[in-house]
Amino acid sequence: MVVGDIVEEVEVLVIGAGPGGYVAAIRAAQLGKSVTIVDKAELGGVCLNRGCIPSKALISAAHHYEAAKESPFPGIETTASFDFKKVQEWKQSVVDKMTGGVQQLLKGNKVNVIQGEAFFTKPNEVRVMQENGSQRLQFQHCILATGSRPIELKNLPLGKRVIDSTGALSLDHVPQRLVVVGGGYIGIELGQTFAKFGSQVTIIEGLDSILALFDKQMVRLVEKNLKKYNVQIETKALAQGVEETEDSVKLTYKDKDGNEKTIEADYVLVTVGRRPNTDEIGLQDAGIELTDKGLVKVDQQCRTTNPNVFAIGDIVPGPALAHKASYEGKVAAEVIAGKPSIVDYRCIPSVVFSDPEMASVGLTEEEAKKEYGQVAVGRFPYAANGRATALNATDGFIKLVANKENGVLVGAQVVGVEASNIIAELGLAIEMSATLEDIALTIHAHPTLGEMVMEAAEVGLGEPIHIIKG
Amino acid sequence: MVVGDIVEEVEVLVIGAGPGGYVAAIRAAQLGKSVTIVDKAELGGVCLNRGCIPSKALISAAHHYEAAKESPFPGIETTASFDFKKVQEWKQSVVDKMTGGVQQLLKGNKVNVIQGEAFFTKPNEVRVMQENGSQRLQFQHCILATGSRPIELKNLPLGKRVIDSTGALSLDHVPQRLVVVGGGYIGIELGQTFAKFGSQVTIIEGLDSILALFDKQMVRLVEKNLKKYNVQIETKALAQGVEETEDSVKLTYKDKDGNEKTIEADYVLVTVGRRPNTDEIGLQDAGIELTDKGLVKVDQQCRTTNPNVFAIGDIVPGPALAHKASYEGKVAAEVIAGKPSIVDYRCIPSVVFSDPEMASVGLTEEEAKKEYGQVAVGRFPYAANGRATALNATDGFIKLVANKENGVLVGAQVVGVEASNIIAELGLAIEMSATLEDIALTIHAHPTLGEMVMEAAEVGLGEPIHIIKG
Amino acid sequence: ARRGGKRRALATPHVRALARKLGVDIDEIDGTGPVGRVTEEDVRRFAEGGRGLAVEPD
Ligand SMILES: Cc1cc2nc3c(=O)[nH]c(=O)nc-3n(C[C@H](O)[C@H](O)[C@H](O)COP(=O)(O)OP(=O)(O)OC[C@H]3O[C@@H](n4cnc5c(N)ncnc54)[C@H](O)[C@@H]3O)c2cc1C
Ligand SMILES: Cc1cc2nc3c(=O)[nH]c(=O)nc-3n(C[C@H](O)[C@H](O)[C@H](O)COP(=O)(O)OP(=O)(O)OC[C@H]3O[C@@H](n4cnc5c(N)ncnc54)[C@H](O)[C@@H]3O)c2cc1C
After folding, report:
1. Domain of residue B381, residue span
2. Which NCBIfam families match (chains A, B) (predicted)?
3. Does any CB of chain C come closer than 8 Å to the CB of residue B442?
4. Atom 20, ligand 1: residue with shortest CA distance
5. A320, B129, B148, B210: which sits with the fewest CB atoms below 10 Å from its CB?
């Protein structure tokens, strides 16, 4: 192929095949559009290849290993050992299954897939760099979904022993000593996983708490579990620099009292945030403006300042989560197909696959107070739930937050076993403007964890059955 | 105490301290009533002592044993053994914790607890037989919650080796050979549990399928798992009689072709249903009428034909489930306290803690077709869900059934891992009259099992993302 | 985010979608459902009343 020779016309061009882009492509195709999707790497994006899916596969393997290593059930004796290479092979098989699925779905929906790196050359044209040349694509509409990449700190340059989440997920062995710089959800999920597999883990966090976006009482339960695995947590600590040698790495940091300390490890994992991939795609040539945070400016329909280009996912404002990317992908595709869709969610759940799991949706108690003045709060502990007791998993609680004036649920937090599944009902409740009474009057099966949702609502109404009214 | 000496006056008398009675007592006390509760056995009723809780504790222990015995995670090697006596001790500790909790709750709500067997002597009076005598209680209002007991078949009289669910739950060893007569949910839960612990299990079912109340395609997945444990299933089979010897028991039955067969086992577990405890409590003396099925006749407020007596739980019509009993208990208590409550649920979830779990709420597809004519159905498989894949638990599906005319969800079925938790959202959806569109537009966290709910709704709307449109 | 500081209507996702389809601003509608929820009926009635405002992106 000769460079720049022909200009191909495409109806809808999607750039980036992560959970934002591939979902947008499928929805647009379903709505009758002819769709081409371009990705420079694997289908599925960060999420399927280097994010959600591989991390959760390792987490569930570690959970299974741990549950068998230390049986929580009296009378059941179990032992466990692992072969990390095989665990990684299995993880890869999970990833391959999911990305293979995406390929099938794109094919089944007749989406044209191009492997290559795209950048804008004009407001309605991109050039796609491929292994053996390049091609030009002129589009009627474009959906930009190029996602994000780990932030690299100047004083902690990546190397053989200074790694990011992608590096950590592909280690072929369990490090003896692992330092995690950044105690956000990615750092905690990975740190706790390696701790379960036997690493001596230290977490260096700049703020005064790990998982700072979550309720302190929720975080306390995760900290308790981390302690079980001898994970050291240094808060208000500032990483200063690293020194790599052949078989170890030294991290220097200032602790909360301002003392300089050095810690030696096999690897330093840097998880201090992610930055949007908006810098190398020629946005200026397409008339696409950025916010001062480097995110793409979009309206309620995901339209950029170039009216034919839409942007979704990690490159636009809002939480950098896969399900937000997919939601926006559907909106953008529908708008292009002429539907009156807008980004119109009342809430986005966020889940941390820590042990115990944490999940949150809508407003916290503090946020709700600011917004509504008076709030009604209902809190219910796992320890008073029959199913949790029968599962031997009684650490945790559910908290519901309602607008006191009308009883409408505005937020919910869950920490404990299966929090990731319990939160689903609460997200629907918020979207439906359900009241605490609606939830309390909905029969929840016995004995299930879902009963706690009903009981927390009763607590919020001042009529708790399974805890004594305080 | 001299029999019949004094008549004590009580404001609200609750008879039976199961999930119906104790919840009613707490709610009545919360609403300012002075409450006395009488039970002839343990607090917590069948549910906490011989039903839901002990069965689910054994199920979760068996699940844990099995998960460690045959690791589903490549790369993680585990072994498992058990000491059934200790498992039983643990199960008892779970039961004790829950019943101790009920005691605390009753005390905390200032409910007076009497141990004894009550029967009506007048429309507003009962006699309570106690260990050392008896006492008379005159009540303003009474809530009757005496529950149910296993049906005993004439030709299969209980004995040392012919046992009911209570007997099976308290075995101190795992039988080598176990025959289960009755493939309803109790028979399957217990049969599968013992099969996991190593029993050779045979299930004798009179209908043409086990778990006949559930969708055939759901049941198929449970049957597949039962086969893994060499469980034999005989459907359309009729138990004829038993012959007990010192160390075994022989069951004779007619198989589906009418051939008489005999099977030898260590125990025959009879789980063919339960009958209401309405026969020995002097209902006729209180003017309380029964239906032709022996259940107590009640109106929408749980009021019996005696206007001062209410009845709830397994002794009244409707599914014999703990959460139904508790719901009715609250209604009865509220009515007595002068509130306008009625039994007004749109749906009651039912869950089977089989492997995989099954759960259902509202109407099945067939029922919905009868009710509404046209229906929209959305089915989504676990195999296409990222979380299920990362958990290595891809057997299962979710099915949503909506009224085609307005899109309102009217039923849902789930089979697969955590079905018991997934069903909670769907129960709320039905109570809120949510439409498929409401569910599809609610952001569900990635990667969680709850995404399947959203995706099934999209399938029902004809816009599936993660499966190819059929 | 709130628009113009005004309270957002209490309404389910499909009712919100219907309002968009009919070109009305749901936040303008007084809901007649429980706790003031805007119902499907309310939206249709409002749309027929011709007081609809097209939703415009921010
Ligand atoms: C370790 C880790 C764990 C995570 N866990 C979760 C979780 O549990 N839940 C959750 O919701 N989120 C999780 N996330 C975040 C989630 O992965 C992102 O929010 C999500 O992937 C964003 O989707 P996207 O479609 O915007 O972009 P991405 O998934 O980042 O995909 C962007 C795609 O665009 C391609 N691309 C970029 N530039 C170009 C170009 N110029 N030309 C062609 N192609 C290009 C890339 O190759 C990539 O495939 C996790 C992230 C990490 C790192
Ligand atoms: C093995 C098994 C598993 C089960 N699993 C589940 C499940 O997972 N989920 C579910 O929802 N349901 C389950 N059930 C059913 C559930 O246990 C019943 O639906 C529930 O217990 C009914 O509650 P109740 O309050 O009506 O009566 P019960 O729980 O039966 O309680 C009645 C109480 O009344 C007392 N009583 C009776 N007569 C008198 C009298 N004359 N005087 C004083 N006291 C009296 C009894 O001692 C008893 O304590 C299960 C049942 C069994 C047997």
Report:
1. 356-460
2. lipoamide_DH
3. yes
4. A322
5. B129
Pocket-testing residue among A40, A46, A345, ligand 1, by greatest number of atoms within 8 A of Cβ: A46
* Residue where a domain terminates, one of B286, B318, B345: B345
- From residue B422, alpha-carbon distances to A302, A426, B459 in Å are 31, 12, 17
Residues A347-355 have a mean pLDDT of: 98
- Under 8 Å between Cβ of A91 and A102: no
Pairing of β B133-144 and β B7-15:
parallel
What is the pLDDT at residue A3?
53
Crossing angle of the two packed helices B52-69 and A52-69, in degrees rounded to 10: 100
Interatomic CA distance for residues B119 and B357, integer angstroms:
40
- Reported as a single tens digit per residue, the pLDDT across A84-110 is 999 999 999 999 999 999 999 999 999
Query: Is position A446 annotated as part of the catalytic site?
Result: yes
CB A423 within 8 A of CB B450: yes
In a domain, B103, yes or no: yes
Q: How would residue B71 be classed by pLDDT, with cut points 50, 70 and 90?
A: confident
Give me ligand 1 centre to Cα A357, in Å: 22
Other CB atoms within 10 A of residue B374 CB = 10
Instruction: Please give the sequence-ordered ranges of beta strands (E in DSSP) within B266-313, or none if there are none.
Output: 267-270, 274-276, 309-311
Q: First-to-last CA distance in chain C?
A: 11
C12 at the A interface (CB within 8 A)?
Answer: yes
Radius of gyration of chain C (CA): 11
Quote the CA–CA distance of B65 and B442 in Å, as a whole number: 37
Number of structural domains chain A divides into = 3
Which of chain A's residues have a Cβ under 8 Å away from the Cβ of C23? 340
Q: Is C10's CB within 8 Å of A431's CB?
A: no
Task: Please give the angle made by the CA atoms of B357, B358 and B359, to the nearest 5 degrees.
Answer: 125
Q: Are residues B17 and B74 located together in one domain of the fold? A: yes
* Residue A470 lies inside a defined structural domain of this protein: no
ipTM of the complex: 0.96
| 3-state SS assignment for residue A175 | coil
Instruction: Tell me, yes or no, whether B40 and B131 share the same domain.
Output: yes
Exposure class string for B7-38: b at 16+ Cβ within 10 A, else e: eeebebbbbbbbbbbbbbbbbbbbbebebbbb
Percent of chain A topping pLDDT 70: 99
Pull the structure tokens for residue A215: 């309720």
Nearest CA to ligand 2 atom 28: B147
Neighbouring C-beta atoms of residue B448, cutoff 10 Å: 30
Q: B371-405 pLDDT, tens per residue?
A: 999 999 999 999 999 999 999 999 999 999 999 99
Beta carbon of B359 within 6 Å of any ligand 2 atom: no
A41 CA: nearest ligand 1 atom: 47
If you take atom 33 of ligand 1, which residue's CA is the nearest one? A16
Same domain for A256 and A401: no
* B437 inside 8 A of chain C by CB: yes
Interface contact A362, partner C, CB < 8 A = no
Positions of B annotated as catalytic residues are 446
